[in-house]
Design goal:
globular, D-tyrosyl-trna(Tyr) Deacylase, Chain: A, six-stranded mixed sheet, alpha/beta, 8 strands
Length: 145
Amino acid sequence: MIGLLQRVRRASVEVAGETVGAIGPGLLVLVGVQHGDGEAQGRRLLERLLGYRVFSDAQGRMNLSLRDTKGGLLLVPQFTLAADTARGARPSFTTAAEPARAKILFEALLSEARREWPDTGSGVFGADMQVSLVNDGPVTFWLEV
């Protein structure tokens, strides 16, 4: 499972002109599900997201996690993260999980996140989404579990 996390000042997701998820300061995470991923990878990704130290402490060092800052978490499904771009001028999605399986795993991750972190928002699996964000830093990390 892939998580492309971005430290944000704010972020939101719209579907058909309606805001379906929004946070203030925190993490926007684009989530890609690959073949072979299961709920264990989702739990591990969530653990890493909540504990990953990407927020600045009083000295300006990235020593604080989402748990420390009490920020928001916005999870957005994005199958294109699992693209194989090694050859040609068009990506291949052979490494991406089948959509039905990916949806189940994304929703399991989202459910677990909402249990553990109440300030969790999300995009809508399979929808045409417009994602807006103010990247803080910018700070962006690729996590793969």
